[in-house]
């Protein structure tokens, strides 16, 4: 809450922003005006209170949006704009929104994850379409989604396993396509080849690759359209990892599902993958976030 930014873990590309390419270490970014941060495998981007956008780490495929510069060791500002409102870092691309509702993406585009029909890498922010009503954005490995002011959900990029939720498994979606016709989407998250999204009625929906039961719908088949996770209701927070997912309910209980080979579900064993949500011990959880 004091606006300080803390990072830790692998730093071979400078992704912790500490000023070098070194071994893992905790770092505190001394400036006290950070409001949001989004990181992925080898880079991170963050927003400041003044609406400026800053990125650090690997600039492979231009995912930092800084042009032709190589990897950087500490946070560098993207241009001079002061109206950035949200940012989401994918594996090799980044997308962000501005306060005017415009959507921007940059980096690798082989799977059209930049929201256009071109597969050319872009090393600086590129405007996606002409809409001015985007309020939030999320990026997976090679696809992204955005929610508009009217509560509609739009996705684009890699779609071979149904990652975009469009009801098909075409190789990719060139440009944002609306997911169904619902107008009550609240937030969406993605990690690898699957996504989940929360509606205003606190129901959770997942789609994409179903291996290991990561969609929580009772099976392991791929699902190319949002499917209700029936065993969790009144969801207040959620997140998706590489092969698992978790949801927090308003009663402060935590439920997880998917791959469990490294005990990533927190259910006390690594006995088997879980195809449907399983309650995690204790009932006083406040938030949840997942990794690989």
Write the topology of this structure.
Blueprint: E1 5-7, E2 27-29, E3 34-39, E4 43-48, E5 53-57, E6 72-77, E7 84-89, E8 93-98, E9 103-107, E10 122-127, E11 134-139, E12 143-148, E13 153-158, E14 172-178, E15 185-190, E16 194-199, E17 204-208, E18 223-228, E19 235-240, E20 244-249, E21 254-258, E22 274-280
Antiparallel strand pairs: 1-2, 3-4, 4-5, 5-6, 7-8, 8-9, 9-10, 11-12, 12-13, 13-14, 15-16, 16-17, 17-18, 19-20, 20-21, 21-22
The proportion of residues forming helix, as a percent range, comes to under 10%
- The end-to-end distance, rounded to whole angstroms, is 27 Å
Count of distinct strands: 22
In the predicted model, the low-confidence regions spanning at least 5 consecutive residues are none
Query: What is the residue-averaged pLDDT?
Result: 94
Helices, by number, come to 0
Give the overall silhouette: globular
Rg from alpha-carbon coordinates? 18 Å
Descriptive report:
By secondary structure, the protein is an all-beta fold. It contains no helices and 22 strands. The protein has strands at 5-7, 27-29, 34-39, 43-48, 53-57, 72-77, 84-89, 93-98, 103-107, 122-127, 134-139, 143-148, 153-158, 172-178, 185-190, 194-199, 204-208, 223-228, 235-240, 244-249, 254-258, 274-280. The radius of gyration is 18 Å and the shape is globular. The mean pLDDT is 94.
Question: What would you say about this model in short?
Answer:
The model has no long low-confidence stretch (mean pLDDT 94). The chain is globular and about 45 Å long.
List keywords for this structure.
292 residues; mainly beta; four-stranded antiparallel β-sheet
